[in-house]
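Hi everyone,

Forwarding the result from last night's run.
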Amino acid sequence: MIRAYLPVTLLGSITLIATTAVVATSPTEYQANYFGVPLKVQSSSTLQGPKSPGQYALANLFDGKPETAWVEGAKGAGKHQWILFKLEQPLVIEGITLLPGYTKNSALLRANCSPAKITLDSDNDRLGTFSIPYRSEMSVTKSGDLHCQLTNGKVNAYDRIIILARPITAKQFVVAIEEVVFGTKYEDLAISELSLLPSWQATGSHRVSANAIDFMRLLRDQRYNAIKLASNPQIEDLRQKIIYFDEFYKTAMIGETALKIIATAKQEPRLTAKFDASIKPAEVFLRATYSSFIQQAVTFTHSRGDDCLIGYESVHKGDGEWLSLYPVVCLNTTGAVTRMIELKHNDGTPACDDYLPEL
């Protein structure tokens, strides 16, 4: 059983869902037959539950139940804890899905620690470092320290999907926790679900829809013309969007009403890159927000009966008072795009980074 902190050449964050022959050998070990390939999963530690030794075992990551979770058992808030995945044969993967935190209910989600930043490696290659956004607020601990802690509400219990910039073939993957969001009561860090996305998998994982995954694949490959649009979709033309920014106060806002608040603000275009007038607004939107969806932890949720993807922060403007924009793409049951919009958030110092807006 691995207990030491793995070297950088083994760090990472990818996971798998078993389809057959599951064997939970111990709370810190898990074995399965993954699409015909033997798989072994190990963790740096696992919390021993009061009800049974396996209450917070690794097997909870793969059961498709948001009410169960793997919980690390090391001293402290879970930083540098890891989960190692070993396959007997190489597998091509495109990314992962992740349900961070203990999502059984809002109270437990806030009480326990959640991963704020993870690294993802395959064999000896670093695949990326990913910040996981939450709706959080600054809180003062008993010792007087400032920490960001999760707010109440379902927004923090959404799944995240990471699509890599290119498919990766490997036999070994590791999830490593680099930073945490502190719990209000416990130092234990929890993850409720993890899932590997093989390149040939046509259906969604336990919780993320196939339509959402297929859209992300098309976007990654920049096949903009292959992305279907619904009839009368709501699409923001980012070429027409203006940001109002005051250089002296370092304050930024969207919309002409901003001038009533910061009368000395100057107008700045939302897009710095130039797009030919012949390019349709949908393609402009996707090109401009590409880096907010690919190689990022994207939030998967539902709104008005659609599957929606909330991308990572696409604009961060200002200093003491700043403006953040978050791109959103929504898909109907046929996989056609119904909305391409940006959500805005204004905040000031002190505040928590990686804010997660809600539709």
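The helical segments are 106-111, 210-220, 258-261, 281-293.

Cheers,
N.
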